[in-house]
């Protein structure tokens, strides 16, 4: 009966996926610009333009116009939008940069025309108290030129390789600044504090940011005195690169978009983010669409997004309307010190704005908190006589729109070379909608990125999947996107509605909104390519936790989303790990943690192995694919490798030695009970694959072994009213999320009483923002809470685990793409952001599909 049940289960899962994509021919609905399902969740960051780890732009604000959108690393990737109505301009997106001039004499341009960086005194040794005061004696300190940082940082004038640095920058003020707007600009990596004449102006957490602007209050401005002043800063480097730079400016008058629109709503759905604004007498609807549909590998890999808009009159009158949107070459650089070249070109009757670095170091910048600096960003639009695209001066382009509703009339010819640290050109678009009534007018533009080559895969640069080995170029991709606009928008809308409906049925409104928030987040943490043999490779980047590529213990938690919607993508994450072992490049009896640092997939870079962790992960994922597909086809391609890993777990998995596991931020742990569960179920999973492959005796032997180990586990882990974190630590506890495979597939390896005991115990340990990961700390991993919650006895109990996670996402002050690692007491991010592990959130849908047969 076992095989019959699984064939039925595969049919159910297939129907769920088929249902999501059935309406491929559906015409675009009339009401395109409002979501089918309103969303109450306040996203910590709203996904705007997403395709892969490099093209990943978010708004970390409640209102789209409160600040500039950012790359997930925190660097600005500006998108600015304005609507001109009857001659009055309203800014609805981003925030145009103020025109600044230095108030400190040592920042005047040098004779060569380049900026002369400032000098300051500094020390690496903790100074005495009052080191921030104007009259503090710093004669024993060294003198150096800004910026201060490690050698990998931009414009470093003084090397800083220690944990801490203290800096004092003295300057003189002669004129009256009382009527000026004074702005502090600072960059830091990591923990930073800055003082003006002894008063603290800035105190940060451990994150790093560049070119942050802080307008001084009237009280802070009064600290500036005629004569000597001191800016004093301390920065602590937690790990990796280190950097400090800061300046004081006054704001100059300029033409810009000062009047803000009034945002009415924002709704985040799986592939689209919807905004509505009121701009005087008209309403503006704005949609950001990333067509990451999992059944269409071309769509999911093509780096082109749509920005759609509709403007309607609210007062029955006709209004003269023009819309403006822009971006900058910042989309194509890692830092502002890199010279760029921009051009306006025409291809097949369509105008494109193109920008990228001069250097073009293709795939040559591996790392975590970095941005792409090769390839080219493009902005284009649907053709139309009232549409215009141009490249020009940052302030003059806005002035032209404010005064006339048009871009600068003189079109850029040839190529414009720019140094972004001195001036930033804009890539601008306008649509002269002209007479707008209550029926409204619509349009869209497209923003995309051609990375030329995407990944260096074992020392060979590989093209993105959508290029089909060079048969398709970026211009063809844009033409296809334009031709299919209505169809794709309809597909995205249907997908969003059905996914959200399925998630709501499985886990309730709050759960559905969490799934909607995380869909693009997860998909865009990967890049889709093929190897020489044509095998699909779907390579993750370990965003904000070290930058590794194809990390196995990211693949494992992310798997539910791909088991549900396209197991081929999950195979694409596993195939490189199999290849690494089977090619002879990796010869240990367990899988590698990763295959490099993104985008270089040339072999392991992680400093320490996770033997039991990664072996259990790969075996369980292979078993899950077998369960979903109802066959052993994929596993049999790698049978010898899987056998080696299964035998390793038989020998080493029951009582793991002191080693790292996926929760490695908590450090090493021996006798890890949850890790032991993973090992035991990995062995059982191998056994079930073997039976499905016709190897009945072999399969039964491994399943029997797993059952024996599980019985021993239960006696070792039991600790009164719960089960231990580690076998040798009485009084400890941890979430046993790994047992979910046993519950979902009904393997019968572990006693159901284990989770029946632990679930009520967990509920007593919950804090305001969730269940801690274990008894060691108050922080948690929300991906694992979802898995734990799936094993609750009923929907009401499931909700008791979900609502604190929803509260965290809705209330956290950590305005980043949702972090999977947060403090359950404060609701603040402990670490990590924009990581693919949130694919784990989809486990409840998968879980229910298997059990509700």
From TrEMBL:
Residues 508-844 form the Glutaminase A central domain. Residues 24-104 form the DUF4964 domain. Residues 1-22 form the signal peptide. Keywords: Signal. It comes from the Bacteria. Residues 271-502 form the Glutaminase A N-terminal domain. This is DUF4965 domain-containing protein.
């Amino acid at each position: 009966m076992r095989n019959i049940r699984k064939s039925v289960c595969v049919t159910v899962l297939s129907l769920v996926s088929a249902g999501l994509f059935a309406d491929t021919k559906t015409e675009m609905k009339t009401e395109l610009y409002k979501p089918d399902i309103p969303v109450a969740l306040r996203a910590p960051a709203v996904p705007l333009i997403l395709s892969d780890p490099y093209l990943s732009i978010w708004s970390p604000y409640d209102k789209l116009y409160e600040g500039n959108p950012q790359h997930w690393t925190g660097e600005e990737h500006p998108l600015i939008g304005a609507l001109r109505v009857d001659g009055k301009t309203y800014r609805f997106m981003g925030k145009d940069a103020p025109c600044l001039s230095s108030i400190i004499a040592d920042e005047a341009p040098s004779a060569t025309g380049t900026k002369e960086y400032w000098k300051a005194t500094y020390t690496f040794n903790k100074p005495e108290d009052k080191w921030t005061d104007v009259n503090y004696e710093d004669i024993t300190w060294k003198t150096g030129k800004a910026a201060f940082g490690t050698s990998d940082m931009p414009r470093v004038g003084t090397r800083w390789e220690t944990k801490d640095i203290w800096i004092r920058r003295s300057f003189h003020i002669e004129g009256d600044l009382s009527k000026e707007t004074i702005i502090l600009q600072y960059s830091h990596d990591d923990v930073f504090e800055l003082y003006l004449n002894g008063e603290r102006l800035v105190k940060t957490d451990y994150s790093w940011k560049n070119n942050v602007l802080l307008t001084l209050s009237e009280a802070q401005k009064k600290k500036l005195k005629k004569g000597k002043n001191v800016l004093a800063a301390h920065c602590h480097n937690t790990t990796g690169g280190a950097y400090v730079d800061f300046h004081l400016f006054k704001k100059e008058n300029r033409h810009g978009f000062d009047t803000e629109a009034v945002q009415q709503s924002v709704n985040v759905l799986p592939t689209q983010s919807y905004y509505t604004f009121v701009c005087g007498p008209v309403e503006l609807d704005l949609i950001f669409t990333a067509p990451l549909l999992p059944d269409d590998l071309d769509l999911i890999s093509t780096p082109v997004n749509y920005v759609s808009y509709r403007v309607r009159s609210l007062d029955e009158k006709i209004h003269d309307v023009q819309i403006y949107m822009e971006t900058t070459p910042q989309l194509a650089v890692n830092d502002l010190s890199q010279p760029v070249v921009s051009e306006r070109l025409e291809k097949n009757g369509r105008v494109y704005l193109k920008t990228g670095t001069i250097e073009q170091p293709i795939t040559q910048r591996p790392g975590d908190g970095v941005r792409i600096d090769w390839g080219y960003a493009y902005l284009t639009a649907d053709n139309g006589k009232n549409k215009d695209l141009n490249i020009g001066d940052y302030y003059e382009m806005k002035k032209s729109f404010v005064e006339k509703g048009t871009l600068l009339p003189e079109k850029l010819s040839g190529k414009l070379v720019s140094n972004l640290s001195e001036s930033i050109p804009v890539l601008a678009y306008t649509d002269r909608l002209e007479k707008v009534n209550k029926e409204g007018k619509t349009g869209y533009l497209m923003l995309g990125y051609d990375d030329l080559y995407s990944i260096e895969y074992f020392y060979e640069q590989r093209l993105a999947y959508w290029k089909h080995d060079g048969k398709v170029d970026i211009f063809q991709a844009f033409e296809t996107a334009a031709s299919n606009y209505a169809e794709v928008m309809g597909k995205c809308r249907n997908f969003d509605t059905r996914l959200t409906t399925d998630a709501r049925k499985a886990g309730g409104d709050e759960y559905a909104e969490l799934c909607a928030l995380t869909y693009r987040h997860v998909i865009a943490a990967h890049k889709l390519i093929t190897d020489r043999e044509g095998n699909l490779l779907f390579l993750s980047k370990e965003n904000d936790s070290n930058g590794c590529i194809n990390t196995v213990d990211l693949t494992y938690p992310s798997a539910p989303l791909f088991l549900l919607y396209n197991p081929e993508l999950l195979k694409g994450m596993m195939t490189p790990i199999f290849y690494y072992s089977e090619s002879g490049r990796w010869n240990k009896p367990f899988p590698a943690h990763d295959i490099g640092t993104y985008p270089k997939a040339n072999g392991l870079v992680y400093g320490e192995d996770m033997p039991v962790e990664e072996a259990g992960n790969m075996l369980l994922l292979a078993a899950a694919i077998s369960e979903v597909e109802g066959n052993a086809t994929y596993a049999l391609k790698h049978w010898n490798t899987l056998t080696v890993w299964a035998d390793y777990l038989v020998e080493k998995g029951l009582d793991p030695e002191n080693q790292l596991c996926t929760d490695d931020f908590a450090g090493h742990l021996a006798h890890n009970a949850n890790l032991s569960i993973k090992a035991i179920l990995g062995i059982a999973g191998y056994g079930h694959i073997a039976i499905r492959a016709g190897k009945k005796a072999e399969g039964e032997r491994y399943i029997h072994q797993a059952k024996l180990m599980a019985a021993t586990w239960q006696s070792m882990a039991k600790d009164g009213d719960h089960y231990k974190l580690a076998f040798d630590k009485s009084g400890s506890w941890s979430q046993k999320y790994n047992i979910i495979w046993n519950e979902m597939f009904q393997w019968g390896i572990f006693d159901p009483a284990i989770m029946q005991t632990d679930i009520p115990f967990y509920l007593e340990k919950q804090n305001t923002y969730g269940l801690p990961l274990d008894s060691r700390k108050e922080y948690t991993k929300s991906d694992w809470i979802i898995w734990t919650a799936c094993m609750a006895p009923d929907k009401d109990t499931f909700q008791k685990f979900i609502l604190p996670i929803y509260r965290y996402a809705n209330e956290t002050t950590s305005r980043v793409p949702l972090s999977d690692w947060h403090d359950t007491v404060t609701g603040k991010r402990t670490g990590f952001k924009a990581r693919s592990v949130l694919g784990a959130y989809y486990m409840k849908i998968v879980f229910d599909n298997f059990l509700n047969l």
